[in-house]
Design goal:
single chain; mainly alpha; rod-shaped
C-alpha cells in the first residue's frame, strides 16, 4: 500500500484548466494595464507618476498571484484524498477570483487618479 494519493486524470485536467483560465485572465489584465500605462507615459511628467504606480502595482499583483499558484500546487501535492483536492481547488479558485476582482478595482482607481491628474490644467 502506498502513502501517496494519486490524483485522477480528470481531476488533474480540471485543475490545470482552471489554472490556465486564471492565468490567462491575469495575463490579459496585465497586458491591458501595461498598454494603458505605456499610452499614458507619453502624455507628460504628471502622468508618468501614475504610470509608474500602475507598473509597480502590476508587478506586485503578478508576484502575489504567482505565489498563490505555487502555494496551491504545494498544497495539492500533500492532498490526502479526492475531497481534499476538491476543497483546495475550490478555495484556490474563490481566492484568486476575489483577488483578481480586488486588483482590477484598485488598478481602476489608480488609472482614474492618473487620468484626473493628466486632465488638470497646468499652472
Amino acid at each position: 500500500m502506498t502513502d501517496q494519493f494519486e490524483i485522477p486524470k480528470e481531476m488533474r485536467a480540471m485543475a490545470e484548466a482552471s489554472f490556465d483560465q486564471a492565468k490567462q485572465a491575469f495575463e490579459k489584465f496585465l497586458a491591458s494595464a501595461q498598454s494603458t500605462a505605456s499610452s499614458i507615459e507619453n502624455r507628460g511628467e504628471t502622468v508618468r507618476a501614475g504610470a509608474k504606480d500602475v507598473s509597480t502595482k502590476a508587478i506586485a499583483y503578478a508576484e502575489k498571484n504567482v505565489a498563490a499558484s505555487l502555494d496551491y500546487a504545494q498544497q495539492l501535492l500533500h492532498a490526502k484524498d479526492l475531497g481534499d483536492v476538491m476543497r483546495l481547488h475550490s478555495e484556490y479558485v474563490q481566492s484568486q477570483m476575489k483577488s483578481l476582482a480586488e486588483q482590477a478595482s484598485e488598478m481602476g482607481q489608480i488609472m482614474s487618479r492618473a487620468a484626473t491628474e493628466a486632465a488638470k490644467p497646468k499652472t
